[in-house]
Amino acid sequence: MKTAVVVAIVLGSVLLQALLARFAIGGRLAFDLVLVGVVFVALQSGPVAGMLAGTIGGVLLDLTAGGLVGIGGLLKTIVGFGAGVMGTRLVVAKPYARALIVAAATVLHGFLSMALQAAIDKWPGLDWAAMLSETGFNTLAAYIAFAAIEGVPGALSRGRGRQRTAFSRRQW
């Protein structure tokens, strides 16, 4: 995957995250579409591209969210590398398998975030409902995205095939 495509996917996921974040009702809807984009890039292109996507996406998300810049970049870089390694070691060709990788990456990201916060300041506590909610939303978003990406080329080729036969095979 070219660097420009990686940057475009990450910028698109950051933009989508920023647009949909205002619909999170009082902070009860937790989702991380940037993490989904990072895992997508990592599964498609490997650990190095996952690290690049994680660094860019995490830092951009830190800049838009405010607070300490770099923590999200570090966490998403680690998760992008891990997802890239899992993608090269395991067969993850189907959308549900990729969505499960996103679920595992979301849980890992949550635990790493709590551990880093505990190392910097104090133990933040574990909110299982929030982690489960975020994992569910991320997994659903990933499944929809992966199924759409997998289905588009087939739909386009079927459409081209019909169009070609309709105009090129006239029966006189």
Give me the count of strands. 0
Q: Output the number of helix runs.
A: 6
Regarding CATH, which class? Mainly Alpha
The major sheet is characterized as:
none
Oligomer: single chain
Strand content: under 5%
Return the CATH architecture: Orthogonal Bundle
CATH topology: Arp2/3 complex 21 kDa subunit ARPC3
Q: Helix fraction?
A: over 70%
**How many domains, in number, for the residues?**
1
Q: Give the class from helix and strand content and strand pairing.
A: mainly alpha
Q: Low-confidence runs (pLDDT<50, min 5 residues)?
A: none
The gyration radius over C-alpha positions equals 19 Å
Helix and strand sequence: HHHHHH
Gap from first CA to last CA: 47 Å
Q: On the 0-100 scale, what is the average pLDDT?
A: 86
Taken from the alpha-carbon principal axes, the silhouette is globular
Secondary structure topology:
Blueprint: H1 3-21, H2 33-45, H3 47-65, H4 71-89, H5 95-120, H6 128-168
Helix pairs in contact: 1-2, 1-3, 2-3, 2-4, 2-5, 2-6, 3-4, 4-5, 5-6
Sum up the structure in keywords.
172 residues; mainly alpha; Arp2/3 complex 21 kDa subunit ARPC3
Describe this structure in a few short sentences.
With 172 residues, the chain is mainly alpha-helical. It has helices at residues 3-21, 33-45, 47-65, 71-89, 95-120, 128-168. The protein has one domain (3-168): Arp2/3 complex 21 kDa subunit ARPC3.
